[in-house]
User: What shape does this take?
Amino acid sequence: MEKINIFYTTTSNEIVTEKLVQNLLNKKGVVCVNIIKNVKSFYKEDGMIMESLESVLLIKTILNKNDLEEFLTEVHPYEIPFVTEILTGKTNKDYLKWVEKNL
Assistant: This one.
């Protein structure tokens, strides 16, 4: 293993976020999820500018985009979740050993 994949998604309140994180960590192939709380998001919907507080999830996994996206579509609380892969280079070897040990 030379690298892990990192995916970015957002979610709403703390209870929903923690439930989603638990679902992710119970999925084989997901090793870590970082939560960045209280991110103010602005977006357009139905011709209006909307505002909400969200949490950003950084998902560290050996799953590919299709597998993770399919899983998130099933368990994510949003009707249309944003899921994107953050392209990375090589990951440090000690961290990769930790990942292999904890999958």
